[in-house]
């Protein structure tokens, strides 16, 4: 009976490590990361219909990975996601809201064909690394803040929203 020796594996530890890492991570997760910097600009709508930037407004952008706060025209780092980024800006009694769709980046899928395979694609999709938001997002502040607050109170909650009340478990 011949005993197999695996001494030749020791000669290629870097190659084995590189293959293992590429199979356990997605291409976009490595190359682009799971965050992206965007600029959210709050725009005042004047009575004349003209729209101009309000650099003093505060903005909150929200997706399923969290809420990210910024001042108008500043860069804000948001987590990439496959769901829309909802941005709300306000200044004084004026406010505005917009929803921005993310775009699938086909290059990340192509990269996963070479390294990462289906596991890499799944990881990139789950982490949002395969998606991009536009670099610039404009929010027109064309309603009163109280009207926007009422819109949010009266809007239906998403079906996957969790209640803040915790029910005791029955055992």
Can you tell me about this structure?
The chain has helices spanning about 15-25, 25-30, 105-115, 115-125, 145-155; strands at about 35-45, 50-55, 60-65, 65-70, 75-80, 85-90, 95-100, 105, 130, 135-140, 145. The chain has about 170 residues and is of the alpha+beta class. Strands 4-3-6-7-11 form a five-stranded antiparallel beta sheet. Helix 3 runs antiparallel to helix 4. About 25% of the residues are buried. Mean pLDDT is about 75; it is low at about 155-170.
Summarize the structure.
By secondary structure, this protein is of the alpha+beta class. Helices cover 27% and strands 33% of the residues. The chain has helices spanning 13-24, 27-31, 106-114, 117-127, 145-154, and strands spanning 35-45, 51-53, 58-63, 66-71, 75-79, 85-91, 94-100, 103-104, 131-132, 136-141, 143-144.
H-E string:
HHEEEEEEEEHHEEEH
For the record, give the distance between the C-alpha atoms at the N and C termini, rounded to a whole number: 57 Å
Ranges where pLDDT stays below 50 over 5 or more residues in a row are: 156-171
Number-wise, the strands total 11
Percentage of residues in helical conformation:
25-40%
> Overall mean pLDDT score?
77
SS field, number of helical segments: 5
C-alpha geometry: elongated
- Gyration radius, in Å: 23 Å
Strand sequence of the main sheet, in spatial order? Answer: 4-3-6-7-11
The largest sheet, given as strand count, sense and whether it forms a barrel, is: 5 strands, antiparallel
């Amino acid at each position: 009976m011949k005993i197999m020796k695996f001494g030749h594996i020791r000669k290629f530890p870097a190659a084995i490590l590189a293959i293992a890492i590429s199979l356990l991570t997605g291409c976009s997760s490595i190359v682009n990361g799971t965050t992206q910097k965007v600029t959210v600009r709050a725009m005042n709508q004047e009575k004349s219909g003209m729209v101009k930037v309000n650099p003093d407004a505060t903005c909150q952008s929200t997706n399923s990975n969290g809420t990210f706060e910024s001042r108008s025209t500043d860069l804000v780092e948001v987590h990439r996601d496959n769901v829309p980024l909802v941005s709300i800006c306000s200044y004084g009694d004026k406010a505005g809201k917009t929803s921005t769709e993310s775009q699938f980046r086909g290059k990340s899928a192509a990269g996963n064909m070479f390294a990462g395979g289906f596991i890499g694609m799944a990881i990139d999709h789950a982490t949002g690394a395969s998606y991009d938001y536009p670099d610039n997002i404009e929010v027109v502040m064309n309603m009163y803040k109280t009207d926007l607050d009422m819109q949010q109170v009266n809007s239906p909650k998403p079906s996957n929203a969790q209640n803040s009340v915790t029910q005791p478990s029955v055992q």
